[in-house]
Design brief:
The protein contains 13 helices and no strands. The chain is mostly helical. It has two domains: 196 residues, no CATH class; 87 residues, no CATH class. Helix 7 runs antiparallel to helix 8.
């Protein structure tokens, strides 16, 4: 009876937030399987393990002088944040080619957080159906970005050391970033016990944190655009790409407009080939950038393969354009 309203109240805001974070990644979109895996980790295993560990650890805290409610609030950040961060660490270690920097860390961390908050909210909505409306506004709207913010802090830290030559730096940054996520989460849980004033202060902290994340994303966009301009200029001279290809890739709004036009005028197959061309050009720029900074996971053979694939695909598109015009 209450399942559908609870599900909609949890899922719809999550869809909106997920689309916004997906839009943040303007150049090299992360592979869909990895995005889905990050979201699913937050929404299923992380929540299930949280429930299990909380149940085990709250037993000895039942008679804590803090009281059971405050004890649970103090415990949950220590349990939830490391469990959410597990997926980020696995992505960082085993999908390094798709974990390119701070922006990728933010995207993956936010998706884990959105998955976690969606499931957690649904459990609350189902447990307290009479308070669905107030819980929806409080948990899904006013504090709907909280879990994404907390886990993004860890992702941001890992992304910041992605290309650091000092491998030991990750062992320092990860605990510090995780501590930051735990402290932010703990502050929120403590603040909400002070009713309206605490809620307002906690929301202000969340808002400031989100602004910082957005600022980092903007700086990452500028950084990505600079190295793409640097790496792709040579490809025009070599004849691998054209000046129009360069402009389409460098400026996302042009790329989006061209793809939409291709879809509407030429159909889905042409759109998919054009999408693949843009993807390969961005991959080439990223690979050349990695080579230039000495990334040990990159090789010149892959750069040459990408160039040949781009040339082949451009010729295919040119033939199709000639056939369409004639």
């Amino acid at each position: 009876m209450h399942m559908l309203p609870a599900a909609l109240a949890a899922i719809l805001p999550t869809l909106l937030y997920t689309l916004l974070i997906w839009w943040l990644d303007r150049y090299e979109k992360e592979p869909l399987p990895l995005l889905v895996a990050a979201f699913l980790w937050g929404s299923l295993p992380a929540v299930a393990l949280t429930v299990l560990f909380n149940a085990m650890l709250l037993v000895p805290l039942a008679h804590s002088p803090l009281g059971p409610g405050l004890a649970a609030s103090s415990l949950s950040p220590l349990v939830e944040e490391p469990l959410k961060a597990v997926a980020l660490v696995l992505l960082f270690l085993f999908a390094r080619q798709e974990f390119d920097g701070p922006l990728d860390g933010i995207v993956y961390g936010a998706l884990i957080g959105f998955g976690f908050s969606m499931t957690e909210n649904m459990l609350y909505f189902l447990a307290f159906p009479a308070e669905l409306e107030s819980l929806f506004w409080l948990r899904a709207v006013f504090f709907g970005l909280n879990h994404a913010l907390f886990t993004s802090v860890v992702g941001l830290g890992l992304g910041a050391v992605r290309y650091a030559p000092q491998r030991w730096l990750g062992y320092v940054v990860l605990p510090l970033a995780l501590l930051g996520a735990i402290l932010l989460h703990g502050f929120h849980n403590l603040a909400v016990h002070y009713q309206l004033l605490g809620l307002a202060f906690s929301w202000a902290v969340q808002f400031a944190g989100v602004l910082v994340i957005v600022l980092v994303a903007v700086l990452a966009w500028r950084h990505e655009q600079r190295w793409m301009e640097q790496e792709l200029g040579e490809e025009i001279t070599l004849g691998v790409i054209s000046a129009s290809d360069y402009a389409e890739v460098i400026y996302p709004h042009r790329r989006a407009r061209l793809r939409l036009s291709a879809l509407l005028s030429r159909g889905l197959p042409h759109y998919l080939r054009l999408h693949q061309l843009h993807h390969l050009i961005i991959e080439l720029a990223l690979h050349k950038y990695r080579l230039s900074i000495g990334d040990r996971f990159c090789h010149a053979e892959e750069r040459d393969r990408l160039r040949q694939e781009i040339i082949r695909l451009r010729r295919s598109l040119e033939v199709n354009d000639w056939s369409f015009e004639n």
